[in-house]
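Q: Can I borrow your eye for a moment on a structure tokenisation matter? Would you mind producing a protein record, from residues through to fold? Write it directly below this note and I will take it from there.
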Amino acid sequence: MSRILEAAVPRRLGTNFRWLLGSSWVSQVGDGIALSAGPLLIASQTHDPFLVAMGVLLQRLPWLLFGLYAGVLADRLDRRVVVVLVDLMRAGVLAVLVATIATGVVSIGVVLVALFLLGTAEVFADTTSSTLLPMVVDKADLGVANARLMAGFVTVNQMLGPPLGAALFAAGMVWPFVTQGVVVLLGAALVAKMRLPVVPATKEHKQVRQDILEGLRWTWQHAAVRTLTLTIVTFNITFGAAWSVLVLYSLKTLDMGEVGYGLLATAGAVGGLVGIACYDWLESRFSLGNIMRVGLVIETFTHLALALNRSGIGAMVILFIFGAHAFVWGTTSRTVRMRAVPTEFQGRVGSVYLVGVFGSMVIGTGIGGLIAGAWGIVAPFWFAFVGSGLLVVLIWKQMPHIAHADSDDAN
């Protein structure tokens, strides 16, 4: 048993990392439950397509409204305390939601407000939590540590959480949100056990706007982090465009039905598990620059393969490969950014990155809808292939430098 634990969570990563990992995995259970329970709760209150879409928007909108402010807060305050307090607030919102469901006074208005508040809390919790790992793990071990954290996202959030949330909702509308509240509190308790080094405090008292500008300036002036951020933003536009029509592609182009669409998501998650199993081996044998290069090529040709494919089985194979790539790319890009950014800037630079990620997804989704409406369901995949291919050509030679950026090299 101890040998299995050592392989899963090496002792050299430290006790603090184990508390962080436990909190992350527990929190992913709650987030995964919400992925299915949230839409089901909205559907139980309304069938209006506009209000259903508003539910999705209100969960993503806080990233654009508060993302940069969350980064400033993470760099100014005790990060462990911020995570704990935000999780307690999130549990409070869930408690109120549970009370309205249990008493029968729940309404679509209550649900939408709750989703917006939970989305806002997620912005501050995720932004601050992402700064904790570089504080407790050596730079050389960030890849392995990130892989363990990402494993929780793939297995618990994407695979276990949604069906569990649906099953709990079927048992009683209130149960998924009770369960989510409990795991949020447990995650907060685990983070509270961490002991973190002190973040260097600035002597000068600055306005929030100045801190935000300082984070944006640092990101832009550091050539490697700037290129990495622009890369993920551009690739998420093409990804968002392609994935915006995936459900229609599955139902109409491939004629796979609702179950078949679910199988595509499962194929991607299983691919992610393969990525988890292989990451340590890949990092020990190949440079991060080459790993990133191969990943960009895989993503580019994923769009081409989906554009040409007309088979349900073929789509599952493509999504399986893409799932493995997505895990490896996500782990590598997080590791590169964490190694390059100084501790006192982790919150602000990380928030710039995350706002770019979510903002570009929103833009890409809109572009994909317009393209599909004008030229057909498969057209967004062609757009994504051409756009991704051009970007790969432009940044190919820069990948090795990005992957081995030093925090002191800001030029």
About this structure: Residues 15-45 form the longest helix (31 residues). The radius of gyration is 21 Å. Residues 407-411 have pLDDT under 50 and may be disordered. Residues 2 and 8 are 10 Å apart (CA to CA).
